[in-house]
Amino acid sequence: MNFRPLLDLNFWFGLTPPPLLPVFRTVTIVLFGLLTALAIVLVLLRQFRKLDAIISRHLGKWVSWSLFFAVTGWLIFLFNEQRIAFFSSRFWYVIWAVFLIWWGINVLRDARTVSARRAKIAEREAFQKYLPKKKR
User: Fold this and answer.
1) HSE of 23, CA atoms in CB hemisphere, 13 A
2) Residue among 91, 87, 40 at smallest CA distance from 66
């Protein structure tokens, strides 16, 4: 396999790149379709299941992540299919992938703190039950 074109700046920043190869076209359609399906499933899960506030807020971050990258991915794909100059350049896929990974890492870091936040709330509630209540 020849990787030499990947080192050429015209490959990445050319204003009118050739259309995607059928294999890569199929891969991008499946990837963006999976992100769209994930967003829909998470929205339905968040809406129809009784979840505590912390889990619901965390699911909301995953919904935002998947919905944002599904929509922007479909836009990049549409621009590539319509061969719109500048917006169909290949570097948009690289920028998309970098932000996808960066935002995903940030959401995963937040996921590690969910159990700690739950424990903190339980501890606060246990402490609050011994405090005097307001009289009405």
Assistant:
1) 0
2) 40
Query: pLDDT digits over 99-120, tens only?
Result: 999 999 999 998 888 878 888 8
Distances (CA, A) of 127 to 91, 130, 132, 136: 54, 6, 11, 22
Predicted pLDDT of residue 134: 80
Give one DSSP letter per residue of the chain, joined into a string: ---GGGG-HHHHH-SSPPPPPHHHHHHHHHHHHHHHHHHHHHHHHHHHS---HHHHHHHHHHHHHHHHHHHHHHHHHHHHHHT-TTTT-THHHHHHHHHHHHHHHHHHHHHHTHHHHHHHHHHHHHHHTTSPPPP-
User: Would you state the structure tokens that stand for residue 59, as one six-digit string?
Assistant: 């699911």
Q: What is the pLDDT of residue 4?
A: 82
